[in-house]
Every structure is written in structure tokens, then in C-alpha cells.
């Protein structure tokens, strides 16, 4: 863990690192973020009107210098991260409202929320779940809809069984996403890693992992974050998860794949014991010190087989040995007596 922390600390000092991070560090996510949807809708409408009326075109940037263009790219990226957070908030709101309407319950986070008479019922939209609804309404892939919903469940305030409001599952990560310090896709990468490691480590180490990955995402690019996330996961779960019986029945075995460039392709999925057996057999067969039968020995064995398995040994005239169950040799290609 110390090595990973030092690795990210060294990378954080590289040129261009942390360009979008604020100097005050992480801010705390607002507890009432989901209760201000009407105000947020007004902000979205005003932003759409402003972008539509004063859109910047490629012709406007033709005469920009490098510094001005780089500054513009950074501001646009920060704006896109604000939009990504609103996408996650919107997906969580749709899922909460749709589920509450289907179950006949109002939202614990907003007791005044209710489906008006003029709005279509969620059960009449032809969608089996929220993923399909978002896919059809927003025209986005199903995987993107699942990603937004999964991230919403990790970084947005939750509702308790008694209706009370609970903090997000990952508070520090939620603060970084809500303040546009990291993108939502980086948040998804961190969330998936934390969910995998949550059952394999202590809460203190999980909190440390969340802090380290969040700071890494703020100061570095997404590719570097993916590598650091992989290092953390491998350090916590060095042996990997043990496959279940169903997984073994599905993927275990040897499979012949399509030949390529004149080479045969054999793919093997085996357990540790099976792998050790296979490597032992292959190492023994390919060991150059294993004695191989010589040509003289092979010729002598072949002559011996012809003498004992020829017609003179099968009871025909001129036989050298008497034919009988006790004396007739068993020859290849003829039934034993």
C-alpha cells in the first residue's frame, strides 16, 4: 500500500497534473442535493438557452493561440463534468420516482413528490425497468444507463428504512464528483473497485483506498487511474476469487480455437491442481534429458514382434511353438486366445 501511495504521489507532481482540482481540496456534497430539482431545472434551462444563443463555433476558435485554446478546453471539460454529475442525479431521480410510483409509495427524500394526474403512469411506458426507460427516453445505450444508475446508488444520498436521509456510500468520492473535480466515468472505475474490495478488507482500509483513488483521479488521467486501481485490487486480493461450481462447469476445460498463421490454438482453463498435472506431463515430455529409444532397439523390438506374431506363431504348418492358450502370444491385430 505504501508503494502505491508513493507511486501516485510522484505522478501527482508531473506537469499538467491536477489542473482541474481546486486549491481548497475536496468539498462536501450537499445533503439536500436531490431536493432542489426545480431550481436545478431552471439552471439547466438557462444554460441551454445561453449555449443555444451564444454557441461557439469552430470558426470562432480559428485565430486562438495555444494558451487561449488550452484554457478553453479546460473550461469545457469542467463544464462537461458538471453535466455528467447532473446526468447521474437525473438517473437516480428517475429511478426513485419510477420505483415509488410503481410500488405506490412516495419518495422518502421528497415527501411532496407524487405523480400528477396529467402525467403517464410508469407502468404504461412499455419499459420493464428503469434501464429500458432511460435507454428509450434518452437514446443512450443500456450499458450507459446501468452505469449511471449504479453510480447514483454509490454517490448520491440514500434513504433509510424509516425515511431518514443517509449520506452517500462513498462520501469523499461523492464530494469530488459533485464539485466536478473528477468525471463520472472515473467515479465508476473507483466505485467498481471499492465494491469488489469491500468484502475482502476492513472498513479502515476501504476508506484509505477510496481516499487514495479519489486523489489519484483528481491529479491524473483516467488511464493512470485504471492502472492504480488494478494495483490496489491485486494487492488486496492477491489470489483472486475462488470460482464457484457453476463457473467451473461453464469455463473449465480445453478448447480448440481457430488456427492462425499456420499455428494451432489450444485454450485451456484449469484449476491449480489440474494445471500442475498438465505442466508436469508437458515438462516430462519435453525434457531433453529424458532417454529416447534408439534405432537399434526399435529394430530389435520390431523383429521380435514379427517372429512371435507371424504366421509361424499362429498355428499354421511349420510353427515353432505349440499353439495353445498358455503359450500363444497375444499379437497386435489378432484376438487373444
What does this entry show, briefly?
The protein is mainly alpha-helical and 337 residues long. The protein has helices spanning 2-12, 37-53, 66-103, 130-138, 142-155, 171-178, 184-197, 203-219, 222-236, 245-251, 272-285, 295-309, and strands at residues 158-159, 165-166, 253-260, 263-269.
Low confidence ranges: 11-35, 111-115, 311-330, 332-337
Main β-sheet, spatial strand arrangement: 1-2
- Gyration radius (Cα, Å) is 35 Å
How far apart the termini lie comes to 72 Å
Order of helices and strands, N to C?
Answer: HHHHHEEHHHHHEEHH
Number of helices: 12
User: Would you report the number of β strands?
Assistant: 4
How much beta, percentage-wise?
A: 5-15%
How can the largest sheet be summarized?
A: 2 strands, antiparallel
Helix content: 40-55%
Overall mean pLDDT stands at 77
Amino acid at each position: 500500500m505504501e508503494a502505491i501511495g508513493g507511486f501516485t504521489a510522484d505522478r501527482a507532481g508531473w506537469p499538467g497534473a491536477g489542473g482541474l482540482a481546486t486549491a481548497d481540496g475536496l468539498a462536501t456534497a450537499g445533503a439536500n442535493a436531490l431536493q432542489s430539482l426545480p431550481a436545478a431545472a431552471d439552471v439547466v434551462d438557462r444554460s441551454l438557452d445561453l449555449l443555444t444563443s451564444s454557441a461557439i463555433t469552430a470558426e470562432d476558435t480559428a485565430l486562438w493561440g495555444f494558451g487561449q485554446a488550452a484554457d478553453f478546453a479546460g473550461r469545457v471539460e469542467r463544464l462537461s463534468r458538471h453535466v455528467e454529475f447532473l446526468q447521474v442525479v437525473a438517473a437516480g431521480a428517475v429511478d426513485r420516482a419510477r420505483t415509488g410510483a410503481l410500488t405506490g409509495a412516495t419518495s422518502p427524500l421528497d415527501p411532496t413528490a407524487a405523480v400528477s394526474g396529467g402525467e403517464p403512469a410508469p407502468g404504461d411506458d412499455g419499459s420493464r425497468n428503469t434501464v429500458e426507460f432511460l435507454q428509450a427516453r434518452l437514446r443512450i445505450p443500456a450499458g450507459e444507463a446501468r452505469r449511471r444508475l449504479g453510480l447514483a446508488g454509490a454517490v448520491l444520498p440514500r434513504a433509510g428504512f424509516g425515511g431518514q436521509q443517509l449520506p452517500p456510500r462513498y462520501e469523499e468520492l461523492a464530494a469530488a464528483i459533485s464539485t466536478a473535480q473528477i468525471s463520472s466515468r472515473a467515479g465508476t472505475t473507483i466505485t467498481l473497485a471499492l465494491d469488489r474490495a469491500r468484502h475482502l478488507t476492513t472498513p479502515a482500509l476501504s476508506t484509505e483506498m477510496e481516499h487514495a483513488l479519489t486523489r489519484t483521479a483528481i491529479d491524473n488521467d483516467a488511464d493512470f487511474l485504471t492502472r492504480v486501481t488494478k494495483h490496489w485490487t491485486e494487492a488486496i486480493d492477491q489470489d483472486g476469487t475462488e470460482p464457484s461450481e457453476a463457473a467451473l462447469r461453464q469455463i473449465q476445460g480445453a478448447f480448440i480455437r481457430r488456427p492462425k498463421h499456420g499455428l494451432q490454438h489450444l485454450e485451456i482453463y484449469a484449476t491449480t491442481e489440474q494445471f500442475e498435472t498438465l505442466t508436469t506431463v508437458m515438462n516430462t515430455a519435453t525434457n531433453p534429458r529424458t532417454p529416447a529409444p534408439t534405432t537399434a532397439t526399435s529394430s530389435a523390438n520390431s523383429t521380435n514382434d514379427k517372429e512371435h506374431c507371424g504366421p509361424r506363431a499362429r498355428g499354421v504348418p511349420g510353427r515353432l511353438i505349440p499353439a495353445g492358450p498358455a503359450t500363444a502370444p497375444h499379437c497386435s491385430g489378432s484376438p487373444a486366445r
